[in-house]
Design goal:
about 70 residues, two-stranded antiparallel sheet, 2 strands, elongated
Length: about 70
């Protein structure tokens, strides 16, 4: 498991292989969570275009499956 270092301005640099595997680019957003055993989990978020947001809601998915 690769180690990362917390920078002076609280920045963390992710290893290149992780960035490539997750196809992350500079400026993308990650959600950060802590675990009960003091771990940190980073989850990439993807922006959904405004005109497609209703499709990805629970109700939108139900309507799509019924069609």
């Amino acid at each position: 498991m690769p180690k990362v270092k917390l920078g002076v301005k609280h920045h963390v640099t992710l290893p290149k292989n992780i960035l490539e595997q997750l196809k992350l680019k500079p400026g993308e957003t990650l959600k950060a969570y802590t675990t009960d055993d003091l771990g940190i989990v980073l989850v990439p978020t993807k922006k959904i275009p405004k005109d497609q947001r209703s499709f990805w809601t629970e109700a939108g998915q139900r309507r799509y499956q019924e069609a």
